[in-house]
TrEMBL record:
The name this protein goes by in its record: Phosphatase PAP2 family protein
Keyword entries, A-Z: Membrane, Transmembrane, Transmembrane helix
Membrane among keywords: yes
Annotated ranges, domain Phosphatidic acid phosphatase type 2/haloperoxidase: 102-215
SUPFAM superfamilies in UniProt: Acid phosphatase/Vanadium-dependent haloperoxidase (SSF48317)
Length: 234
């Protein structure tokens, strides 16, 4: 009696979803800097209108502006985010002996910093200039380093929490904190007049793209990988 060969096991949904997301984000992340570099008029008009409005608010409401400067300089600063990433990597090693996962996390954050600087140099977009500035920043404008770094770090940490089976309360609190941080890191930069809105959008898109690609790399079949809930060290 002949038996039909067993059907191949279905591919995990997570890599498929990450691949689809990466494709969509890749198209958007490539299109936006082209429009910025080409000085596409509708984009520049929208950027200018939003920036002039928020700058008037920032000059008028100094209390909110001061709070936003503290948040952008100390809470959502790229250095603070990278230190949070480093702390998570240390926790992975100390708590789970998950060396591969820790290296993956740190390498992704380092790659994000390199990509950010490379795109800034390639696009070379000037920052907004005001006669009455409320803050200042260096280097080129596109993409926003604050928005991109917050997206990468928060996205990676959320994915790790989900993979390691965080409880419902922890997960909801983490999602709320991540959303607030990613949104706040971008909004404060526009309010303070050091970035155009499309700089922030570019940072969010590039950051999300890197997270999706990093998940694809992590989920790629590999024997003996640590840090997975299915293969946690004893």
């Amino acid at each position: 009696m002949h038996h039909r060969p067993a059907a191949p096991p279905p591919r995990p949904r997570a890599p498929r979803a990450a691949a689809l997301l990466a494709a969509v984000l890749g198209v958007c992340s490539a299109l936006l800097p082209v429009l910025v570099a080409a000085r596409w008029r509708p984009l520049l008009t929208l950027d200018g209108g939003v920036s002039r409005t928020t700058h008037r608010w920032a000059v008028h409401d100094r209390g909110v502006t001061h709070v936003f400067r503290v948040l952008t300089d100390w809470v959502w600063d790229p250095l603070t985010m990278r230190l949070l990433c480093a702390a998570a990597a240390v926790w992975l090693v100390v708590r789970w002996a998950a060396w591969w996962t820790a290296v993956w996390l740190a390498a992704t954050c380092a790659l994000a910093a390199l990509v950010q600087q490379a795109v800034k140099a390639a696009v070379g977009r000037p920052r907004p200039v005001w006669t009455d500035p409320v803050d200042s920043a260096r280097f080129a404008a596109f993409p926003s380093g604050h928005a991109m770094t917050a997206t990468v770090v928060c996205g990676l940490l959320l994915w790790l929490l989900r993979r390691f089976g965080a409880g419902r309360v922890v997960w909801r609190a983490a999602v709320a904190t991540a959303l607030l941080s990613v949104a706040g890191a971008g909004v404060t930069r526009v309010w303070l007049g050091v970035h155009w809105p499309s700089d922030v959008l570019g940072g969010w898109l590039l950051g999300a793209l890197l997270v999706a690609l990093a998940v694809l790399v992590y989920e790629w079949p590999r024997d003996g990988r640590d840090g997975s809930p299915r293969h946690r060290p004893g």
